[in-house]
Task: structure prediction
Amino acid sequence: MALNYIFRKTLPSAFSRLFCRSRFPVEALQNQWFCTTRLTGSDDFTVSYLVNSCGLSPEAAIKASHKVKLQSLVKPDSVLALLREYEFSDSQISTVVRRYPRLVLADGKKTLLPKLEFLCSVGMSRLDLAKTLSYNPILFTRSLKNCITPCYTFLRSVVLSDFKVVNIWKRHSWIFGAILSKNVIPNIGLLRELGVPQSSITMLVTYHAEIVMRKPESFSELVGEVEQLGFDPQKSSFVHAMHALHGKKTTWRRNEEAYRRWGWSDNDILSAFRLCPLCMIKSEKKIMETMDFLVNKMGWKLEKLAKFPYVFLYSLEKRIIPRCSVVRVLLLKGLMKEDKLSLGTIITPSEKYFLNMFVTRYLDKVPQLSNVYQGKANICIL
Result:
């Protein structure tokens, strides 16, 4: 109470009101106030509002005050009230204002509310809106009529459901602020000319929108490279190969080196990629751990792994280790022959089929096999 009284008596009336209605503890503002007033060239009224009502640090508020000057609290208060109505947290509001200070000068009802209402009407939750817009607040500046709505309409026509449009919003929200006629529309047109099926285009746009956002010249080069490697445009592997090659300067190179460290030749890598393009987008850690288990612990030969690169798509802990451990026991017991097995016959079947073929039928001879599958028994003690 004493601190509030001092602020009311010593600060200008408008400034005092800002402190009194702050959402943040008054005690925490004392140092902020003295820090702010020491710095020259800033608008104290604006800085105070950005600190006390928007949650910015004094330094961030001073920086933002060079981009926005408050003459009245009507619009800023209206904007903050609208954001809170749409379930923006205090930290999200602080992030939005720090990244785009001029938002507090917007007309909340005329420019912001219609956008929020439209996005919610097509299935986006308030939680998704708050999360995405706090990360990318520049979307608040895009025209609902000329940008957001046409973008939604086009994407809806491509992916064929609002649910998938929402997924695009959560993964690649910046596409809603793009001019689709420059890149996206001609790129999708090229895929259709090549005979890429609608299901593959939907998958590409929903999960890898950054690829169709490439400049048409670059996108055409990528498509041409995939074609030269022999991928059929009518199969989903064509899109998977595009995804893998899209990151050729980063993920591809790291994974290529990882496979080489385990003894794969360039031909092995290329052959594996043609069989399973997604083996080139897994993390380096996943590749190294899978190789270590299969080669060093299970004794599988490298050439067998190169012939079944799909193994890198499966969970090491939930699928590869349990199944390979069971098979290893059966091999050690002489109940199976290695030359009759392939990783495909072990990894790809359903759990029911695997249990019937590799566990249940051998329980009378190896009672601990169920425990091996569940990770409760060590192979070495059997």
Remarks:
- The CA atoms of residues 322 and 373 lie 5 Å apart.
- The chain has 24 helices and no strands.
